[in-house]
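Help needed: design a sequence for this.
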C-alpha cells in the first residue's frame, strides 16, 4: 500500500512536471504566436504608415511644386502689374498735362474765335445789307430799259424810298441829280449809286473803326494800323476780316486744309478764266476782220456795257482778287502786290473795253464789281467761320467724351489695383432749405466730377461715380449690384454710407420711410436670392445674417430685444484670414429674400432713431448688417464664404446746428468720436503709415477688414447741395477723397475639397491617430 502510494505520488509528480513542461511549452508557443501575429500586424501597419507618408510626401512635393509655380506666376504678375501701373501712372500724368494744355488752348481759342465771330458776323450783316442794296441798284439796265422813262424814274424814287428811308438828304440829292440830268436812266442810276456808295463807305468806315477798336491788343493792331487811312473803307474791312481769317487758318487745322484746298482750286479757276479771256478776243478780231466798223463796235459797247469779254475780265479779276485774299489769309501779311492791284478795275489798261480813260459809268461798274467780289468773299468767310465754329463744337464734344472715357478707364485701373471705390451722391434741396432761400452750390460736372462753389472759387472733386440730385435709387443700385455677385463668389464686400447728418445716407442705404423708394439694403436682399436662384444647379447655398448697432460706444444685437441686447457682450474678433466677425451676436439663417427682409425689419424696430433740427428721423447709431453667403460647388465640392457688410453710419454733426441736448448730446459726442477715429484710420491708411489705429474705437474695429483689409469696399459719400451746408460738404468730400487712396487686398475665401481633406489627414497623422487606407 505504502509502495503503491509512493508510486502514485511519483506518477502524480511526474504528471505534474510533464504538465508544467507542456504548459510552459504551450505558453511559449502561444506567446510566440501572439508575438508573430502582432509583429506581422505591426509590420503591416508600418508599411501602411510608410505608404501614407510616401503619399503625403508625394502630394506635398506636388503641392510645393504647384505653390512654387503659382508663386513664380504671381511674382511675374506682380512685376507685370507694377510695370503696367508705372506705365499707367506715367500715361495718366501725360494725359493730365495734355488735358490741361488742351483745355487752356481750347479756351483761349474759343474766346478768340467767339470774339472774332461776333464782330465779324455783325460786320458781315451790315455789309451784306449794303451790298444787297448796291446789287439791286446795279440790276436795272436790261429790265428797266424796256420801261417808259417816266415810269422808270418813278419806280427808282419808290425803290430809293423803300431801300433807304433813313437818308432823306441822299434821296433829295438823287432827285436833284435825276432832275438835272433829265430823264436818262443811266445818269439817274449813277446818282443813286453815288449816294448809296457814300452811305456804304460811311458805314464801312464805322465798322473799320470798330474793328480797329476791337482788335486792340490782340496782335493784329500793327497790321490794322498799317492800313492806309486813305484806303477805301471796304478794303480796310476786307483786310481786317482777312487778318481774322488768318488767325483761324493758323489755329484750326481743318480751316487750314480748307483754305489750302480753296487756293488750289482758285489757281485752276485762274487758268480757266485766262483761257476764256483769250477766246472772245479772237472772235472779236474775226468780226473786225469781217468788216464790222470799229466805231459801230464802240457804239454797241456803249449800249451794252457788259460784253462777253468784259465778263471774262470781271471773272478773271474776281479770281485774281480771290487769289490775293487767299494768299493774304495764308501768309497773314499782305502779299507782294501793289495797292493798285486792289484798286484797278477790269478795264484798266484794256483798250478794248475803254482803257485807263474809261468813262464814269465803267468806273462805277468797276467799283460795284469790286464791292460784289468783297461781298462774296465776306459771305464765303462767313460760311467758313460757321464751319470752323461747328468743327470746334465737334472737337469740344469729342474732347469731353474722351475725358469721360479716360476717367472711366482710370477708375477701372484703380479698381484693379484694389482701391476702395467711392461714389458721391447729391441729395435734392429739402423744403427747409428752399424756404430759407438757400442756394445750391454743388453741381455735377459729369458722371465722375462734382464741383462746390466756395468763397475761394470753384472746387472740383473726382470720384468713381457721381449721382446728381435727380438720380433714382435704381440707378444708384445698378452701379452697386456688381459687388453682390462678388460676395456670392466668396469675396468680402463692404458697402457703407458716410456724410453729414441729413445728407441722405439712410435714404441711399435703406430707402424712404414707407419703402416706396427702396435703397441698397432691400435691393441687395432681392439680388442675393436672384443670383442664388440662377446658380442652384451648380451650387448649394446657405445664407445667414447678423445685425448690430453701435450706440453710445456699445455694440448691440438688433436681432434680440433691447433689454436682452443690453445684457449681451458682443466682441469683435478676427479670424486667421483677418476676417472680422461679431462674437456673441445672434446669426439667423434666411432661405428667401422675404425672410431676410423680415429679419431686417425686426432689427430696424430696435434701432435708436430721434428727431433733430437737421433731420426728423436722424439715426443716432451706426447700423451694421453682415450677410454670410456660404456656397458649395456641387461638381468638385469646393466651398467658399462671402461676407457682405452693409453699413449706414450715423451722420457727422455739430451740436449747435442739430440742437442736441442731454442724451442727444451724449449720442452726438459718441458718434463724432467714432467718426473721428474712422478719420484717423483713413488718414493712416491713405498716407501709408505703418501703424493703423483700428483698436481706438469699436467702429474702426468693425470696419477693419473693409478699410485696408481683405474686402472689396464701396463708400457712398452723401452730400447736401445747399450753401448753408457747404463747409460740411467740403469736409465730407475731402474725407472721401482720402478714402479713394486706400488700397485693399481682397481675396476669395475658398478651399477645394481635396485640400480640406489632405489637411485633415495630416492633422490626424501628426497626432498619431490610425487611418484606414483610402478605398
Ligand atoms: N436722394 C434723395 N432724394 C429724395 N429725398 C432724399 C434724398 N436723400 C435724402 N432725402 C431725404 O432727406 C431726408 C434726410 O435723409 P436721411 O435720413 O437719409 O439722412 P441721413 O444722412 O441718414 O441723416 P442722419 O445722419 O441724421 O441719419 C429724408 O427725409 C430723406 O427722405
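Sure. Designed sequence:
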Amino acid at each position: 500500500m505504502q509502495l503503491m502510494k509512493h508510486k502514485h505520488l511519483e506518477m502524480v509528480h511526474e504528471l505534474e512536471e510533464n504538465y508544467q513542461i507542456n504548459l510552459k511549452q504551450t505558453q511559449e508557443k502561444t506567446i510566440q504566436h501572439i508575438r508573430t501575429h502582432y509583429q506581422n500586424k505591426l509590420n503591416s501597419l508600418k508599411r501602411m504608415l510608410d505608404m501614407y507618408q510616401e503619399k503625403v510626401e508625394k502630394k506635398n512635393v506636388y503641392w510645393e511644386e504647384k505653390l512654387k509655380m503659382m508663386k513664380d506666376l504671381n511674382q511675374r504678375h506682380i512685376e507685370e502689374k507694377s510695370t503696367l501701373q508705372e506705365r499707367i501712372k506715367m500715361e495718366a500724368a501725360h494725359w493730365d498735362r495734355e488735358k490741361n494744355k488742351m483745355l487752356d488752348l481750347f479756351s483761349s481759342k474759343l474766346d478768340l474765335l467767339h470774339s472774332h465771330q461776333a464782330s465779324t458776323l455783325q460786320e458781315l450783316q451790315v455789309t451784306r445789307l449794303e451790298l444787297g442794296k448796291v446789287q439791286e441798284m446795279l440790276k436795272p439796265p436790261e429790265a428797266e430799259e424796256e420801261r417808259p422813262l417816266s415810269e422808270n424814274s418813278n419806280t427808282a424814287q419808290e425803290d430809293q424810298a423803300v431801300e433807304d428811308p433813313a437818308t432823306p438828304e441822299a434821296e433829295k440829292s438823287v432827285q436833284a441829280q435825276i432832275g438835272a440830268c433829265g430823264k436818262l436812266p443811266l445818269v439817274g442810276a449813277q446818282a443813286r449809286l453815288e449816294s448809296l456808295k457814300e452811305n456804304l463807305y460811311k458805314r464801312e468806315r464805322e465798322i473799320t473803326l470798330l474793328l480797329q477798336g476791337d482788335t486792340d491788343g490782340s496782335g493784329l493792331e500793327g497790321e490794322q494800323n498799317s492800313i492806309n487811312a486813305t484806303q477805301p473803307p471796304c478794303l480796310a474791312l476786307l483786310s481786317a476780316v482777312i487778318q481774322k481769317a488768318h488767325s483761324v487758318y493758323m489755329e484750326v487745322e481743318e480751316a487750314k486744309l480748307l483754305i489750302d484746298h480753296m487756293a488750289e482750286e482758285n489757281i485752276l479757276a485762274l487758268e480757266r478764266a485766262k483761257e476764256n479771256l483769250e477766246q472772245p478776243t479772237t472772235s472779236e478780231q474775226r468780226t473786225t476782220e469781217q468788216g464790222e466798223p470799229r466805231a459801230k463796235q464802240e457804239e454797241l459797247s456803249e449800249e451794252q456795257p457788259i460784253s462777253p469779254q468784259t465778263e471774262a475780265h470781271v471773272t478773271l479779276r474776281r479770281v485774281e482778287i480771290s487769289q490775293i485774299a487767299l494768299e493774304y489769309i495764308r501768309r497773314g501779311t499782305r502779299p507782294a502786290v501793289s495797292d493798285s492791284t486792289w484798286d484797278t478795275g477790269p478795264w484798266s489798261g484794256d483798250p478794248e473795253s475803254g482803257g485807263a480813260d474809261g468813262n464814269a459809268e465803267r468806273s462805277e461798274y468797276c467799283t460795284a464789281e469790286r464791292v460784289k467780289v468783297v461781298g462774296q468773299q465776306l459771305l464765303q468767310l462767313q460760311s467758313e467761320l460757321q464751319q470752323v465754329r461747328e468743327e470746334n463744337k465737334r472737337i469740344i464734344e469729342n474732347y469731353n467724351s474722351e475725358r469721360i472715357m479716360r476717367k472711366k478707364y482710370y477708375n477701372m485701373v484703380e479698381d484693379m489695383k484694389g482701391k476702395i471705390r467711392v461714389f458721391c451722391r447729391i441729395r435734392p434741396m429739402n423744403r427747409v432749405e428752399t424756404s430759407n432761400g438757400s442756394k445750391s452750390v454743388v453741381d455735377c460736372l459729369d458722371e465722375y466730377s462734382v464741383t462746390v462753389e466756395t468763397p475761394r472759387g470753384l472746387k472740383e472733386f473726382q470720384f468713381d461715380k457721381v449721382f446728381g440730385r435727380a438720380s433714382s435709387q435704381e440707378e444708384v443700385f445698378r452701379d452697386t449690384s456688381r459687388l453682390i455677385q462678388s460676395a456670392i463668389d466668396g469675396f468680402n464686400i463692404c458697402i457703407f454710407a458716410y456724410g453729414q447728418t441729413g445728407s441722405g445716407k439712410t435714404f441711399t442705404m435703406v430707402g424712404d420711410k414707407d419703402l416706396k423708394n427702396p435703397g441698397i439694403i432691400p435691393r441687395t436682399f432681392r439680388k442675393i436670392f436672384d443670383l442664388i436662384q440662377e446658380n442652384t444647379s451648380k451650387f448649394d447655398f446657405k445664407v445667414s445674417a447678423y445685425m448690430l448697432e453701435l450706440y453710445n460706444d456699445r455694440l448691440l444685437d438688433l436681432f434680440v430685444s433691447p433689454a436682452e441686447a443690453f445684457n449681451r457682450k458682443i466682441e469683435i474678433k478676427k479670424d486667421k484670414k483677418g476676417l472680422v466677425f461679431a462674437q456673441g451676436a445672434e446669426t439667423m439663417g434666411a432661405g428667401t429674400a422675404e425672410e431676410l427682409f423680415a429679419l431686417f425689419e425686426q432689427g430696424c424696430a430696435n434701432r435708436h432713431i430721434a428727431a433733430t433740427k437737421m433731420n426728423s428721423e436722424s439715426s443716432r447709431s451706426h447700423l451694421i448688417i453682415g450677410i454670410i453667403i456660404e456656397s458649395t460647388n456641387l461638381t468638385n465640392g469646393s466651398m467658399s464664404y462671402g461676407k457682405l457688410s452693409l453699413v449706414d453710419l450715423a451722420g457727422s454733426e455739430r451740436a449747435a446746428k442739430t440742437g442736441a441736448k442731454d442724451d442727444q448730446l451724449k449720442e452726438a459726442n459718441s458718434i463724432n468720436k467714432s467718426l473721428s477715429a474712422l478719420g484717423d484710420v483713413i488718414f493712416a491708411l491713405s498716407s501709408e503709415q505703418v501703424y493703423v489705429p483700428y483698436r481706438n474705437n469699436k467702429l474702426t474695429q468693425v470696419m477693419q477688414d473693409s478699410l485696408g483689409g481683405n474686402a472689396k469696399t464701396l463708400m457712398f459719400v452723401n452730400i447736401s447741395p445747399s450753401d448753408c451746408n457747404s463747409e460740411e460738404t467740403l469736409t465730407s468730400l475731402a474725407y472721401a477723397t482720402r478714402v479713394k487712396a486706400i488700397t485693399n487686398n481682397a481675396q476669395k475665401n475658398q478651399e477645394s475639397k481635396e485640400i480640406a481633406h489632405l489637411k485633415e489627414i495630416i492633422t490626424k497623422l501628426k497626432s498619431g491617430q490610425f487611418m484606414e487606407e483610402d478605398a
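Residues 418-756 form a domain with the Kinesin fold (CATH 3.40.850.10).
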